[in-house]
Amino acid sequence: MGVVSQEGSLVSYPPMLQQLSYGDSDVAVSAGGTSLLTTTNAIHRGSSRNPLPHSRRPWMKYCRLCPYSTPIAGNLSRHMLSHSKERPFACRLCPYRCNQKVNLQQHMVIHTGEKPYKCSFCDYRSSRKATIRHHEVAIHRLK
């Protein structure tokens, strides 16, 4: 068994390679997951939404519904909730519902006005840590 090289000649698979099929093309993949040879250059036009087999890292976990990827299986499980219509966490003060407890906790600061995060350089406060980081970079030129 082999693949066609870019020059058009048939090349045998070395023992450390495996053959993967993607559409009507074959890809030779090294143990490190790198694409070495293909039967067509068209295979390299894959979208980032559905990465080609040779561009996937074996230790990464990939969402089947969107471009999200993570090396941590638990993160992928939590991410999959974002695609679910189920919203078990409900705000008791308004109609807001969500599928993760952390999102409800973040939502609640709308009602409480709590701003637990403070800038290290001035009195600016925010309900979100990421907003503080952005503020420090933009205002105080922190890198």
UniProtKB/TrEMBL annotation:
Coarse class of the protein's main subcellular location: nucleus
UniProtKB keywords: Metal-binding, Nucleus, Repeat, Transcription, Transcription regulation, Zinc, Zinc-finger
GO molecular function: DNA-binding transcription factor activity, RNA polymerase II-specific; RNA polymerase II cis-regulatory region sequence-specific DNA binding; zinc ion binding
Gene3D superfamilies named among the record's database cross-references: Classic Zinc Finger
An example Gene Ontology CC term for this record: nucleus
InterPro entries found in the cross-reference section: Snail/Krueppel_Znf (IPR050527), Znf_C2H2_sf (IPR036236), Znf_C2H2_type (IPR013087)
Subcellular location: Nucleus
Keyword Lipid metabolism in record: no
SUPFAM superfamilies for this protein: beta-beta-alpha zinc fingers (SSF57667)
Domain C2H2-type, first and last residues per copy: 61-88, 89-116
Family label: Belongs to the snail C2H2-type zinc-finger protein family.
Identification of the protein by name: Zinc finger protein 513
